[in-house]
Write a structure and sequence with these properties.
globular, Nucleotidyltransferase, domain 5, 6 strands, 2 domains
Length: 260
Amino acid sequence: MTTEDIIYHIFYQVDEQMLDVAKHRQAKLYPSELVTIGILFALKGSHFSAFYRWLKRDYDSLFGGLPDRTRLQRALQVHQDWCDRFLKEPSFFTVADSYPIELIFPIRAGRSQQQIGKKGKDKGRWSIGIRLWWLLSDSGQVVEWYWLPMNQPDKDFNPLAAYFADESIVLTDLGFRDANGLPPNLKVCKKGTWNERMIVETTFSMLTVVCHTKKFFHRLPDYLWSHCAYLAAMFNVLTTLFHQLFPGDERQRSIAEFSL
């Protein structure tokens, strides 16, 4: 599958969900085109400036001409709420976990007043960044997401699970234990039990290998929220697309076929 084919397929999936969103008379891009670009950025990863150079050089004509880089990045941030259209409904069992993302090296700590978070450990290694929390349905698609600075523990995400108390039982690992009590629908699973939780480990592995999400390069929270929003939309769009294009595949889901 060529890159153009991937862009066409993604645009079709996005456009089907945004038929009721009108184009602003002063906007250069249609809403579906803007969300498609945000999804492509989340899929490709790296700096936005490098992504923009690649998109402008090779695929500018597909979008009828791109706006300036800074204007495009601001538009993606302003309209990040459109990504909520691509979140899925919770299933009876859902799975939650956090994913550490590095923003800067620890040696650069304190150099900027805009620094997000403090030092935390990721698998024994000190870094400064965030923990991205995903709630996945039993089909492995994103129901809800949030992020907190890396120095905050996983248990701080527990109130988000309580929001789904009437809809779903949320399975988590031992890192979400809290001495002050847990939400009634949160089930902490010991290692080796509830293999249903493996779906989140597979998901985060795909993000690492395909989307290079272990490191972000944003310095402002608004753009960090935007990247996370398009990342969740991207995953749901591509997993849906995988089932449509490869209905006989034995794998439950994959996004490797759409790697840029």
